[in-house]
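Page 47, continued from p. 46.
Same chain as before, 262 aa.
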Amino acid sequence: MSELDVSEFQSQARDVNSNSITELVKSYEESGELSLVLTIGQRLYDSNQLAEARYYLKSGLAKTERESFESAVIYRLLGNIALKESDFSEAESYYNRALEFDPLSETLHVNLGSLFVQNQKYNQAMYYYTKAIQINSSCVKAWIGLAIVNRGKGEQDLAWANLNRALDLDSDSLTAIHICVDWAIQEENYYRALPWVMKYVANNPSNIEIKYTLAGMLFHLRRFSEARKNLHEILEFSPGWLKAIELIELIRLEGVAIDKMD
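Result:
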C-alpha cells in the first residue's frame, strides 16, 4: 500500500466521531500497542468504515507474533467485516482462524452459526450453536440461533421451546422479543408472545415502541381497556405520538361498533 493510501485511511478514520479515534490512531502510530488497534478496528467497524477497519486490523495482525488473545480478536473482527460484506467464504475462514487461538469462544461459535443461517445451511448452523451452548449453557444468542434453525427446518414447537429458553435466561433481550412477536403475528397466536412482551414492558416502561407493540397485540385480542391504558402511558412519555393517537381512535371506533351491535 502506498503512503498516499495509508494517509487516506488515516484521514477517514479520524472522521469517525472523532477526536477519540484521532487520539487512538496517533497513539497507535507512536506505540504500535495492539490493544489500541483492537479498539480502532472495532470502532471503525461499528461506524461501517469497513475498509479502514480492515486496514488497521491487518496492520495489527502483522505484529501479534501469534499472541492468542489479540490474534483471536483480530481474526474475529475481520470475519465480522467479511460477513457484513456478504463474503461468506472469507468470513468462515477468518472465524476458523480465530478458533485456532480461542477454541472455547462461545462468541465465535455463535458467529459461525449465524453465518450458516444466512446461507440456510441449518445443520452446520445447529452444530455451532449447540457447541456454543455446550461451552456456556446460558448463552442467549446461541439459544436464539438454535430457535431460528429449528424454525427454518420446520420444527415449530422446538423453535418456540428454544426461544422461550432464551427469554427465560434474558427476558430483556430485544432480539428475542422481536422474534417472538414476529412469529406470533405470523401464526396469529398473540398469546404465545403476550407474557414475554408484558414482562419486557414492565421492566422497560420507557421503550414506547415495544409498549405500542403490546397495545397492538391487546387490541387484536380485543382487550381494549388494557390497550388504551398502555397507549395513554405512551402519550405521557411522548405527547402527540401519532401511532398511539391513531390506535386510541381505532379502539374508540371499535367501542362504538360494539355499542351499535348491542
